[in-house]
Design a protein that fits this description.
Elements (H helix, E strand, L loop, with lengths): L1 H7 L3 H7 L4 E5 L5 E5 L1 H7 L15 H16 L3 E10 L2 E13 L5 E10 L1 H45 L1
Antiparallel strand pairs: 1-2, 1-5, 3-4, 4-5
Amino acid sequence: MEFITNVIGLDVQSLIYSFPMPTTIVDAADEFRFVMINRHANGAAGEPLLGKRLKDMTDSEKNLAYIKVFFDVAETKKERMWRSTRWEMNGRVSYYDLYFFPVMGKEEKVKYVINMGVNVTEATLYAEELGHERDLRDAFLSHLGHELNQPLYIVKATLEALGKNA
């Protein structure tokens, strides 16, 4: 972490630990090992991550996709975002938008990849609720249209029959 501290000019460890969102730093030059993680990220992971290598976390499809983003950021040297990721912890479901940022080292190689999560649970649940309400509205309108058409069809057919007999 000396490189980041020297470049930014402040105590990165204190800064990262004070962030109110899950934040991790992976050393891209050292087998993609977690070198810094704050309490929010450790809680979200459900297990201690410090010192673990990304490639040792391949126990699920979700982890594989998560790991792939770290490698992609290191390779392309570009930021990435992973939208509305669902996490379960202690029986609670949370949604996070995950942001990944490369930190360049010497020789224009990515030295670290910083990952930060922004909690979007409230917005995601609200959008899901709106979607459910929209489905209910559409079903109601479809049913209403059918119910209105049925008597109108009978009236129309009766008037046509009366018109033909007159």
